[in-house]
Each structure stands twice: as C-alpha cells, then as structure tokens.
Structure prediction request, 398 residues.
Amino acid sequence: MSKQNLGDTIIRNAAELFRKQGYKATSIKQIANASDCTTAALYYYFEGGKAEILETVMQRMAPDQLLPEEKRALPDTLAEFFEIRTNLMKSNMPQLAERVRWLLMELANLSEEDKAPFQRQLLGIQAEMQKSLGAYVEDETLARQVSWVMFCSMFGYQQLVVMMGLQDESGLDPDNYVEAVRNVIFKDLLHLEKRVDHE
Amino acid sequence: MSKQNLGDTIIRNAAELFRKQGYKATSIKQIANASDCTTAALYYYFEGGKAEILETVMQRMAPDQLLPEEKRALPDTLAEFFEIRTNLMKSNMPQLAERVRWLLMELANLSEEDKAPFQRQLLGIQAEMQKSLGAYVEDETLARQVSWVMFCSMFGYQQLVVMMGLQDESGLDPDNYVEAVRNVIFKDLLHLEKRVDHE
DNA sequence: GTCTATAAGCGGATAGAC
DNA sequence: GTCTATCCGCTTATAGAC
Prediction:
C-alpha cells in the first residue's frame, strides 16, 4: 500500500490515466509527472517505453478476478443466487463499468493475438454464469440463453446508462435496473431450487 | 452523392477516420490526405481546426434518425412488432455497432453540455420503444422495464459480442441472440395484440 | 479556394552525468 | 536509480503566393 518502488507507482498512475483518457491520449510526460519522476526514469523500468507500460497495465486490468472464489458458491434457490450476483455487481458498479469501458476502447487497437486472452476471460465469465444457472434450470438451452441475455444486459446497462450518463435523466439507478431484470428475465425462474440429479 | 464541395468531403472522411481510430488518434494530415487536399485547406473550411471538424462530425453521427419514420407503424401483434424491430437491428448491425462504440468512446471527453443532445437522443429511442410496447402491454411498469432491458441487452450484445469479437468463439450470431431475447424476455408477451382501449 | 512553406510545440526516446 | 539535456519526427496552425 505504501509507495513501493517507482515501477509500481508508474503502472498505477498509467493505469488511471489510460482509463480516464485512453492510451493514445496519454503522454509519457503525464505519466512521469503523476509519478513524480522524469520520462527518462520510465525507460529505466520499461525499456519498451509506452507500449510496454500499456502491456503491463493490460495484465492488471484483466477481468478474470472479477468474481471472488467465495462468491461462487451456489445457494439453495435461484432467487438467492440472483440476489448475491446482482449485489456483487451493484457494489462494484462505477469502477467495474469504467474498467469495462476502457477494455472496450483499447481492445479495438489490439491485434487478434493480443485480444485473445481478454476474449477468453469474458467468455469464461459467461460460461461460469451458464454453468451456475444450470444448477437450477433444467433446460440447457434456456440456461445458455438466460446467461447470455443477462450478461449482455448488464454490460449494456453499465455502458449505456452508467457510462453514458443516462442514469439521472432516466431515474434508472442500479436497484431499479436489477429489479427490472428480475421481473423481465427471471420472473418465471425465481422459484427454482437447486437440482442434485446428475452429479 | 457526387464530390460536392470539399468541406463536405472533409467531414465524411473525418467521420470515417474518427470512427475507425478515434478523434485523438486521427491527425488532420490524415484527413487532408483522405480528402485529396492539404491541411491548410481544412482551415479554410473549418477555422476552428480539428475541434470544429469534430463538432461537425458529431452532429452527423447523432443517433436520432436511427429508426426511419415508416418503420414506426404498429402491427397487430407484438410478435410482428418484435420481428420488424429486431430485423431492423440485424440489418444495421455492423455499422450501427461501430457508430455506437464511437459515441461511447468520444462522449467521455465531452462536457456535460455537449453530451446532453446525445443523451436526449438515446433516451428518445428508449421512450419510443416504451411507448410502442405500451400499445400491446397493459402494465405500464412492465412496458418500461421490458423496454429498458431490451435496450440495454441489445446495446450490450452489440458492444460485448460484436465489437469485442466474441461472436466467433461463442457462436452467438445476431439470429441466435435475437432468438434468445425472444425466448427470455418476450416469451410470455408474444401473444399480445394491439390494444385500442384508450385513444 | 487551394497550395507551398514554415513556425512553434509536443511526443517518444536516448546518451551521459551524478 | 534518477536526472539533465537533447534529438528527431510529427502535429497543429498560419502567412502569403497563385
């Protein structure tokens, strides 16, 4: 938590600047100023310059640790499951939305190869959701469809409403939206209990 | 359709470059090259330079004419309505997703005042959808919730799946996704017919 | 209207002092 | 390890010729 070494400080500051302004719009001078050093010092820690700084930041911005292990347990009813997962989302909301927005922005400039790990992580989130839903929902196709619509819908809410600033005008705060999702997507499923049939 | 005046050509080319690379990453030299003129010529048409070019492009990128007037008619059943609207979305898909992504990118750098017209347009799209749904769905709250979840979900699909390149890996093409939305969000509503009670 | 030429400055990057 | 000094290239922007 303390100052740590300069290399770490550089990455933390770069991450914030990249997130706020984008990679291209951030100069190494800005990163140096924020880190209380000169641009030359950046090159001591990151020979590859700005590009290597981005690479390092990318690794820390990865969306893989989005869901803490202890939160992946499956409660007895889908209603509880829905509660836990949406609360997790709500509590991470502004920061999560910002990170996701940044990823969406910068991914466009990456090669297919560099994109791949991020894509795999995103697909992993959906897969985990689908698998969890499968513990309650018998119909596999339905579990898949619900998980995707849920995933896209939450992603859309974050970017469209939160990041584009529609929240105030629409009065659609996270609680309202989760309520809408519960009512529209999950209404017929919430009574379902955990299945123990196979496995 | 023809060459028109240079000012128009500049804006069209700038719009394409901004959309592909972002505002900051596009130089006026690139715009000039694409428009077969020099940077000095840009300043003849846009004294304000790059910033004024952006302003002009912004006006043309506005999402207000997204839904042609003739498509706003309400068919007899919600099933038909769903069909027409989702087909419209599918047929516009790659271009629409790109424009929306650009808007999301650049909006972050705008002042609250400059953002306002875009926000109003987006809210208008949702409002129109809610109003249309209201012609079939009696419960006003439900119409509102469905329209928002639908809007966010479609937005999310565009950006998450289409723009972030998850389509191939997930096998979730637009047809699949619309099918999922139909099954998950609209399943209990599709039998509804147009109400003529009030009005 | 559109060009050439050029000013002024910022960006990324490096060499060498300490 | 970190700084000063500096290089080069590119960008925005303008003045003045045609």
Remarks:
- The domain at 6-61 of chain A is CATH 1.10.10.60 (Arc Repressor Mutant, subunit A).
- Chain A has a mean pLDDT of 93.
- Chain A is about 65% helix and 0% strand.
